[in-house]
TrEMBL record:
It comes from the Bacteria. Residues 36-143 form the Formyl transferase N-terminal domain. Residues 177-256 form the Formyl transferase C-terminal domain. It comes from Kitasatospora cystarginea. This is Hydrogenase maturation protein. Signal peptide: none annotated. InterPro entries: ClpP/crotonase-like_dom_sf, Enoyl-CoA_hydra/iso, Formyl_trans_C, Formyl_transf_N, Formyl_transf_N_sf, Formyl_transferase-like_C_sf, HoxX-like, NiFe-hyd_mat_HypX/HoxX. PANTHER family: HYDROGENASE MATURATION FACTOR HOXX. Pfam families: ECH_1, Formyl_trans_C, Formyl_trans_N.
């Protein structure tokens, strides 16, 4: 079928739906933006059999939905209506939720239902939930709805009448009055729930150190105490703030936008506060958490027999210069341990999206910070590539993009969860790319496929990545079970009879490749191009980065589809 995907942004869910339907043989086109006339023009241009809206904040015009079947993905179960479905689900402590695919009509979220799917609601932030459990349910419901539409025999179920047993549950927009934290009264569990319901957008508006800030992310801390509302400590760029019965770690802050001022963006909390921050102790996370201990860390290491597990989880998957250096230090320490397999990653959300564009945007000299950041991540990738005394597995429980994909490709094996989406390209940010991609990508998929992936700049599903050779294993697990599944597979790998043979073969292959062309030559050639991107006059990178960081809307088709 010819399907026009209509969305407010080409976000993770829109990309996943696009890629999955395209793989199933449908002819896909994409239109972004709220302008009714532009949408009408797109419909005339593409003459679709079906309009599909995976993520839409605006209303489809009546003349469009009355002339064409328009299916809308609502992130709530049948009967749920309103613009803040996931916010309410987390706020009310729902243990299970759902996604509904319904037909657009005159009642918002009230049209006939084509399909629905259920999903659990684990104790995670809204954006993590959206990209994982909700996205899995949404894809299940979308594929069923499209199949039913294509059959031309299915009659969607109206949300009224004798056959409809679900009450209408319409709820208002979840505004800041509902999110506000009462530091003098709210226990830690309540504060964390409010923060999770606002992560990563819109954040919780609060007053801090004489200014107004949006708080992004929240993790309980049970070992630190203080006056409720008081800042207690810092850790890896996050701040710890006291509650009435404990404390919470807040990784990121965003200043409230001033009237007439530019859009603001999230930064690591310590960096955002800058000189406003009083002198606080830097409290490192304990190397090993005892059972029942609640605290936050973005890096941790553990061992299970002959396997080491180095987990990292940076907000939004972005890796600043500091993140890269800390991860490199942790990686080197892990390589000092007597293990034969080292698993890198294994968390449930983003693996990595490469360099930290927000931190770069905030720097006094963004070009210089870009250069520092790309060199720091190159150092990390080089360390992985030159590890020859054990096997390294990159375990992707969540999406990866740009340099984050190339970091994974430095490993010997790449395992990813079945719902993962990969964007192995840099072009949309006006960058050539580094992280040794000119070495790792062609050796996995071949020169022609590497060129196609980086130039077309389209998302790749886990199954397509497996067929291409971009990944070695797709793990069919839920987001929450991915870590345990990877653990079992890694132990099996470490205890297999061929392990030492594989380690010897990789060492020999690395030596042959180094003799043919040193890794330093790949890095130098890539960085020569990147230096021009960062420092050259007329290069688009700085404008594209600023627009991305400040979430400036895109209208029409996404750049990679034009």
């Amino acid at each position: 079928m010819r399907i026009l995907l209509v969305a407010s942004a080409f976000n993770s869910l829109s990309q996943r739906v696009f890629a999955e339907l395209r793989e199933r043989g449908h002819t896909m086109a994409v239109h972004l933006g709220p302008d009714p006339e532009e949408l009408r023009a797109a419909v005339r241009a593409h003459a679709p059999d079906l309009l599909l809206a995976p993520m839409l904040k605006s209303v489809i015009p009546p003349d469009v939905w009355s002339a064409h079947t328009c299916l809308v993905v609502h992130p709530g179960p049948p009967g749920d209506r309103g613009p803040s479905a996931l916010d309410w689900a987390i706020h009310e402590g729902a243990e299970h939720w759902g996604v509904t695919v319904l037909q657009a009509d005159e009642v918002m979220d009230g049209g006939p239902v084509w399909a629905s799917a259920r999903c659990p609601v684990p104790p995670v932030g809204k954006s993590d939930l959206y990209r994982n459990e909700v996205a899995d349910a949404a894809l299940e419901a979308v594929l069923l709805a499209v199949e039913r539409f294509a059959s031309r025999t299915y009659v969607p179920q109206p949300q009224y009448g004798r056959g409809w047993r679900v009450p209408d549950h319409t709820r208002p927009y979840f505004d800041q009055s509902l999110r506000r934290v009462d530091w003098a009264a709210d226990p830690t569990a309540t504060v964390v729930r409010k923060l999770r319901a606002a992560h990563s957008q819109p954040g919780v508006l609060d007053e801090l150190l004489g200014g107004e800030w949006y708080l992004h992310g929240g993790h309980p801390e049970d070992g630190l105490r203080g006056v409720p509302g008081e800042l207690l400590a810092t850790r890896a760029g996050a701040v710890c703030r006291a509650t009435v019965d404990g404390a919470v770690w807040i990784p990121e802050l965003r200043p409230r936008r001033r009237p007439g001022g530019p859009a603001t963006f999230k930064l690591p909390a310590v960096l955002a506060l800058g000189g406003l921050l009083p002198r606080l102790p830097e409290v490192p996370a304990p190397p090993t958490l005892p059972p029942g201990r609640r605290t936050w860390t973005d890096l941790d290491y553990r061992e299970q027999g002959p396997v080491g597990f180095l987990r990292f989880s940076f907000p939004g998957g972005a890796m600043s210069t500091s993140h890269c250096r800390r991860l490199l230090d942790a990686y080197r320490s892990a390589c000092d341990r007597p293990t034969s397999v080292l698993v890198l990653g294994g968390g449930r959300d983003f693996f990595s999206n490469g360099i930290h564009l927000n931190v770069i945007e905030a720097a006094a000299d963004p070009a210089e910070e870009s250069w520092r950041n790309i060199n720091a991540i190159d150092d990390l990738v080089a360390a992985v590539l030159t590890t020859t005394d054990r096997l390294v597995v990159a375990a992707l429980g969540g999406n990866a993009a740009a340099g984050g994909v190339m970091l994974a490709l430095a490993a010997d094996d790449v395992w990813c969860r079945a719902g993962v989406l990969l964007n192995p390209h840099y072009r949309l940010m006006g960058l050539y790319g580094s992280e040794y991609w000119t070495y790792t990508l062609p050796r996995r998929v071949g020169e022609a496929a590497a060129r196609r992936l980086t130039e077309q700049a389209l998302p790749v599903t886990a199954e397509a990545a497996l067929r291409l050779g971009l990944v070695d294993r797709v793990v069919p697990s839920t987001p929450g079970d991915f870590g345990a599944a990877v653990g079992g597979l890694a132990v099996s790998l470490a205890t297999s009879g061929r392990l030492q043979e594989r380690i010897a073969a990789k060492k020999a292959a690395r030596e042959r490749d180094e003799a043919r062309r040193p890794l330093a030559a790949y890095r130098a050639a890539e960085l020569e191009r990147m230096r021009r991107n960062f420092f050259g006059p007329g290069e688009p990178y700085h404008a594209l980065r600023s627009a991305f960081v400040r979430k400036q809307p895109v209208s029409g088709a996404p750049p990679q589809l034009r």
